[in-house]
Amino acid sequence: MRGRMAGAVVLMLAAGTAAGAGSADPWADIRVPASGRPEAIGSPAAGCLAGAVALPPDGDGYQAIRLERNRFYGHPDTIAFIRRLGRKAKGAGLGILLIGDMAQPRGGPMSFGHGSHQTGLDVDIWFRMAQRPLTAAERAEPQPVSMVAGRHVDPSRWSGAQVRLLRLAAETPEVDRIFVNPAIKAELCGSVTGDRAWLRKIRPWWGHDEHFHVRLACPKDDPACAAQAPVPEGDGCGAELAWWSVRGMVPGPSDRPDHRHPRLPAACAGILKQAAAAARSP
Ligand SMILES: [Zn+2]
Fold first, then answer.
1. Ligand 1 geometric centre to CA of 45 (Å)
2. How high is the pLDDT of residue 282?
3. In angstroms, what is the span from residue 282 Cα to ligand 1's centroid?
């Protein structure tokens, strides 16, 4: 927490009452961004987003997938990051990046699939890269490809292309951290030679075997954005990875907090109300 978020009054937005429409998922029902200057408000697992921008569905070196989910919105910094990464991946001959979930038009909690992705600074990018543009049907229901078999990467799928892509993303200054399956982190720890500084941002987490999750740092001049604790020093290949090696590969009950109804910053109530007003206007 920092800036005016520190000590800010938080407000529980009870599902079904906040939108005034009786919706169980008021944030998911919003179809258009909130106006105003771009602002990531709160934290990735308890926040919202003003002034969001839609990622163009087709760009240089990338394609957005599952467009019907309406989760292709983000802070302008996130849009710029994806477009740059697409160009770099294309320049490196890696194929077409498949861009998965980002945020809803005004961020906020999602009805399924993610605890975070609430402030427009998170994006899921598939490890599998397309060698030709996906068709409309393929991008609506793309086939996930896991890079992991058991506790190790699957050598029939994992290759240097994924390592190069992760490094391109991790070496982007505005990227705060990147979540990957622990087996992928272990593989990187054991195989990357030379400059290993970028491994620091690669963080092991459950899942993330067919996509990696990029989280951007709080934008400058965004005092309502709650920064996470800094990533620890070092490459993360020692004690932290050892801790993961004794964890189960799926989260247990105590590892699953309720992300559906987080306590959101008070400012998010205004962001949500603005949506209801917009929906009512002719
Ligand atoms: Zn994600």
1. 11
2. 43
3. 35
CATH of domain 3-280: 3.30.1380.10
User: Partners of 43 in the beta sheet?
Assistant: 46
Delimit the domains of the chain by residue range.
3-280
Diameter over CA atoms, the chain = 60
Could you give the CA distance from residue 226 to residue 209 in angstroms, rounded to a whole number? 27
Å from CA of 23 to ligand 1 middle: 24
Q: Cα of 82 to ligand 1 centre, how many Å?
A: 14
Read off the pLDDT of residues 113-146 as tens digits, 9 standing for 90 and up. 888 999 999 999 999 999 999 999 999 999 999 9
> Model's pTM, two decimal places?
0.88
Torsion of CA 116, 25, 249, 130, to 10 degrees: -70
The CA 138 to ligand 1 mean position distance, Å, reads 20
